[in-house]
Design brief:
about 40% strand; about 35% helix; four-stranded antiparallel sheet; alpha+beta; globular; about 100 residues
């Protein structure tokens, strides 16, 4: 499994979230298994998305897709996002 972490500023969280949700079928096509959306505690328009993906290749394909670029524009993403592609090393649950 792999993780794609994206952090960026948006003009308006609610407007961005609507466009983000519309992208669920595109994410599924690239092997998405789920995601976690986080808002910065000091600025709710700074968003971090932790995406769980079947493969690193699927994450990279989605990250470079024209569909994603178009959605980011429609969703009001401001500036270039911070992007990290990660592979699982260890996970613990149930503390």
């Amino acid at each position: 499994m792999a993780t794609l972490i994206v952090k960026h500023r948006v003009a308006n969280f609610d407007a961005w979230k609507k466009v983000f949700d519309e992208m669920n079928p595109v994410r599924a096509k690239h092997g998405w298994m789920g995601h976690l959306v986080l808002q910065d505690a000091a600025d709710p328009n700074v968003v971090t998305i932790v995406n769980r993906v079947k493969t690193l290749e699927g994450a990279k394909a989605y990250g470079g897709s024209p569909d994603l670029r178009t959605a980011m524009e429609r969703g009001g993403v401001q500036g270039a996002p911070e992007v990290s592609f990660c592979e699982d090393a260890d996970e613990k649950k149930g503390y």
